[in-house]
Design goal:
Elements: H1 5-16, H2 26-37, E1 43-47, E2 50-54, E3 62-68, E4 81-83, E5 86-88, H3 96-108, E6 117-123, H4 134-141, E7 150-153, E8 161-163, E9 167-176, H5 191-202, E10 208-212, E11 215-228, E12 238-247, H6 253-261, E13 269-276, H7 286-295, E14 299-301, H8 308-313, E15 318-320, E16 335-337, H9 338-353
Parallel strand pairs: 3-6, 3-7, 7-15, 8-14
Antiparallel strand pairs: 1-2, 2-6, 4-5, 5-16, 8-15, 9-12, 9-13, 10-11, 11-12
Helix pairs in contact: 1-3, 1-9, 3-9
Length: 356
C-alpha cells in the first residue's frame, strides 16, 4: 500500500519533535540511521552527524536525494502541532518535510526495481557556517557521490522546481575614527559621522533582477549588522558594518568580492568573513527537463543558498524540489502543508521508477 500524506505527516511530526539545532544533531542522526539500517537492502555509512544510505549498485545512472537534518533555534515552536491541513513546528518546512519524504521513499520503494542506482544523504550543519557543512565533508570522504548523474535537494520549494541558487558573501567594513571625550568631540573623529553618507548610500542598493537561462534571480546587498562605540561618553573610534551580498549563478566569489569592494571607500577597512559559491543552473539537463515536463512543474530560481552549490562544485547537476514553503523558513509560524508530503512522494517515486 502506498504511503499517504497523513502517514508521512506522522513521520514528520516525529522528526520535528527531535531537537536538532545546528551542532546538536546526534539524536536525529541516530533516529535516521536506525531506520535506514532496518532496510532489507543497501548499505549505511555514518560520518560524524551525517548518514548516507546507498542502494544496490546495478550499473544504472546514480541519482542522489539529499536533505539536511539541522534546524535554526526554536522560537516557541519546538513541538509539532497540527492545525487543519498544516503541520507546524521548527524545521517542519526547512527541511524535515523533505527528510520525511526521503525516508518514506527508502522504506517503500524496491531499489532493485528503479531506473537509477539510488543514494540518500542526510547531512548535518547546513544552517551554520559553510566551513562546517556536512555535505562538503561527505563529498570529500565519498568520492563516488561526485559520480552521480543528478542530485535532488529536497529543500522547500512549494512543489516548484527551483534551479541553482544565489551565492553568499559577508564582508565587514570598518570605518575608522578617533576616540575622544563626548564633551570635547572636536578632539576626535566620530566614526559614525565619517561613515554616515556612505551608509545612507549603501542601504539604497537596489534589488536587481538577473536572468540566467531565462530564470530570474535577484541580486541583493543588505546591511545586516552594525556596531560602534565603547561607552556613552566616548566618541566612537570605529564603526563596523556587515554587508550581506547575494549574487546570481554565473558570477564567481572573486567577482562578487570585487563588485562589493568597489562600493566601499578605499580608506575603509574591508574583510571577507564568509562566502559560498552560487549553484549552477542545469535547466538543459535531460533528466531535469523530463521531471519538469512530466509533472508540469513551475520553474523558478532559488533565491536562498542551498547545497545545489556544493553539488555543482563537485560536477554534479542538481536542482531543488521539496514539499516545504521557502518563504516560511526560519519563521516562528513555519509549517508544511500536509498534502504536499504525499504529492512530493508520489512525484519522486514515479520519477525514480519509470520514464515518461
Amino acid at each position: 500500500m502506498s504511503p499517504t500524506s497523513e502517514s508521512i505527516a506522522g513521520l514528520l511530526e516525529t522528526l520535528v519533535n527531535i531537537p536538532s539545532v545546528t551542532g546538536a544533531e546526534a539524536e536525529i542522526s541516530a533516529f535516521v540511521e536506525a531506520r535506514l539500517r532496518a532496510l532489507p537492502k543497501g548499505e549505511v555509512t555514518r560520518s560524524g552527524l551525517s548518514v548516507v544510505w546507498r542502494g544496490p549498485s546495478r550499473g544504472r545512472p546514480l541519482l542522489v536525494l539529499a536533505g539536511h537534518t539541522d534546524t535554526v533555534p526554536a522560537q516557541d515552536n519546538a513541538r509539532a502541532r497540527r492545525e487543519g491541513d498544516r503541520l507546524y513546528g521548527v524545521g517542519s518546512t526547512d527541511m524535515k518535510a523533505g527528510d520525511a519524504v526521503m525516508l518514506t521513499l527508502a522504506e517503500t520503494l524496491d531499489p532493485d526495481a528503479l531506473r537509477f542506482d539510488l543514494a540518500l544523504v542526510f547531512y548535518d550543519a547546513e544552517e551554520g557556517p559553510a566551513v562546517h557543512n556536512g555535505l562538503g565533508r561527505l563529498l570529500r570522504e565519498m568520492p563516488w557521490l561526485s559520480q552521480a548523474t543528478l542530485a535532488v535537494l529536497l529543500e522547500p520549494t512549494d512543489m516548484n522546481v527551483e534551479m541553482g541558487c544565489n551565492g553568499i558573501l559577508n564582508a565587514e567594513v570598518r570605518v575608522p575614527g578617533v576616540s575622544a571625550h563626548s564633551a570635547r568631540p572636536w578632539m576626535g573623529t566620530n566614526a559614525v559621522g565619517a561613515g554616515a553618507a556612505w551608509l545612507a548610500e549603501i542601504t539604497r542598493f537596489p534589488v536587481t533582477p538577473v536572468l540566467v537561462q531565462g530564470i530570474e534571480f535577484r541580486e541583493t546587498l543588505q546591511v545586516t549588522t552594525l556596531r560602534a562605540g565603547r561607552a556613552r561618553n566616548v566618541v566612537p573610534d570605529e564603526m563596523v558594518v556587515n554587508l550581506n551580498h547575494r549574487f546570481p549563478p554565473g558570477r564567481s566569489v572573486d567577482e562578487a568580492v570585487a563588485r562589493v569592494r568597489a562600493l566601499v571607500p578605499a580608506e575603509f577597512g574591508f574583510d571577507v568573513v564568509d562566502s559560498a559559491r552560487s549553484g549552477d543552473v542545469h535547466l538543459d539537463h535531460p533528466e531535469v527537463q523530463a521531471f519538469v515536463r512530466r509533472f508540469g512543474a513551475t520553474i523558478a530560481g532559488k533565491q536562498g543558498w542551498t547545497d545545489v552549490a556544493q553539488f555543482s562544485a563537485a560536477g554534479v547537476p542538481a536542482f531543488n524540489f521539496g514539499p516545504g514553503i521557502a518563504t516560511l523558513c526560519h519563521r516562528a509560524d513555519e509549517y508544511c502543508p500536509i498534502a504536499h508530503l504525499g504529492e512530493a512522494y508520489a512525484r519522486l517515486a514515479a520519477f525514480l521508477s519509470t520514464e515518461e
